[in-house]
Amino acid sequence: MAGPNQKKLPDGTRFSNLGGVRHGVIDGFIGQGGQGAVYAASLEGGHFALKWYHDSYIDLDTGLKQRLTHAVHRGAPNQSFLWPLELVEIAGQKSFGYVMPVRSGDYHGMRDLIARPPDRVELTLPQRFIICCKLSEAFLQLHAAGLCYQDINFGNIFFNPTTLDILICDNDNVNVEGADASIYGTRKFMAPEVVRRETLPNTKTDLFSMSVLFFYVVMGWHPLDGKREADFSILNSEAEMSLYGTEPLFLFDPENTANGPVDGLHDPLVTRWRNLPSDLKSLFTRAFTTGLTDPNKRVLERQWRSAFTRAAHAMAACGHCGGEYAVAAGAASCGYCGAALEPALYLDCPRGLFALTPGHGLPQHLLGGGSPNFKTLVGVVEGHPSKPGVIGLRNLSDDNWKVELPGRAPGLLPPGKTIGLMAGSTFHFGKTQVSVREAQAKEVAAV
Questions:
Q1: What gap in Å lies between CA 440 and CA 401, rounded to an integer?
Q2: What pTM value is reported for the model?
Q3: Given this model, what pLDDT does residue 402 score?
Q4: What's the DSSP call for residue 246?
Q5: In the prediction, which pLDDT does 53 show?
Q6: Would you state the pLDDT for residue 7?
Q7: Strands, DSSP E only, in 163-253?
Q8: Residue 346 neighbours by CB under 8 Å, 6+ apart
Q9: Which of 14, 91, 334, 370 is the most buried (most CB within 10 A)?
Q10: Which domains does the chain have, with CATH numbers?
Q11: CA 71 – CA 65 distance, rounded (Å)
Q12: Which parts of the chain register pLDDT below 50?
């Protein structure tokens, strides 16, 4: 590919928007790839990133300028997209580019979630679920605008491990649904029909790619890599066509175990799968069974968003090894280390279960309507400072809560105060009533 060998633009190079009204200057080189190079740039007092295309790429992608013009005029679907803000040109240059917001250094590439230690960014399952929830919302807004992304993969999505916010870049891939695609995608994220070259990327193939991304984030593995993938001595193009195009089969397909887990190789995956919330496992199973062959039966963004929102609050952790499990499963022993588990307490909220684990914040959206907002908390679970195993719920809201404890008269919990938690307690958050329940011990379902 000739493009990446194209000469870099020197610092101080001046550029303007296509109308020649706004002017800026290149401040420094950031990096480059097959499409173009990215620079730090200043534009009328603001700091931006500028993507400048290789001459060879604009010859190849003849619809690029039209797509970008449409994107600029439409605007970003939501705040998670590093969206093109303005097309720019440089006097005497054949090519063009666009400016976009700058991604801060606090963000990591999604590959860091599955990297080998010590390079891997370690996040809990609830944190991973929140990232997936935010991705679901972002792609919901993109698709609702009549657009498809075409190339969902690790390389163009970033996350902040502290805030769990996400950023989606490379939005020059985005196109109007139904228009000719500019790219097929990334092989292991492509829908099988795209791998087989039976269709170009579209919204329904986006749904499949999104499901693959979610499985990677949650499980750290590709959903179609099981026994069959392990049996290939060389993963060449022929093998990849079979695994991801002509004969795809889910690692945890309940009806066909021909590509199932291999003992000794996939054991950690089996354990994690067993301990996920059942509704999340159901969605993954649908995505990679019927969703493999019928694009109309793929899991929708809203369905993923709801499932990940519920799952983010419904996990508990083993006190011995830290292994995470769905509180509703009521496991008697840890699926990771085998240690006996104390019966888990949870709040039975209108929009899902809330595991009562010290440090967990109770979000407003679990108690009523509205979109998921993991930063608006009304309460937080705290451990007793001198009595191990005793936990309480602190009122972070501005309202008094009516509380009913077993065997006691109803009382009020003022803002800022904490009350001990026990099974059978009832809390009244305004008109919303929730109860503290104890998970019933039972065996976690096998694969």
A1: 27
A2: 0.92
A3: 95
A4: I
A5: 95
A6: 83
A7: 166-168, 175-176
A8: 314, 327, 328, 353, 354, 355, 356, 436, 437, 439
A9: 334
A10: 3-100 (3.30.200.20), 108-309 (1.10.510.10), 324-438 (2.60.200.20)
A11: 10
A12: 1-3, 443-447
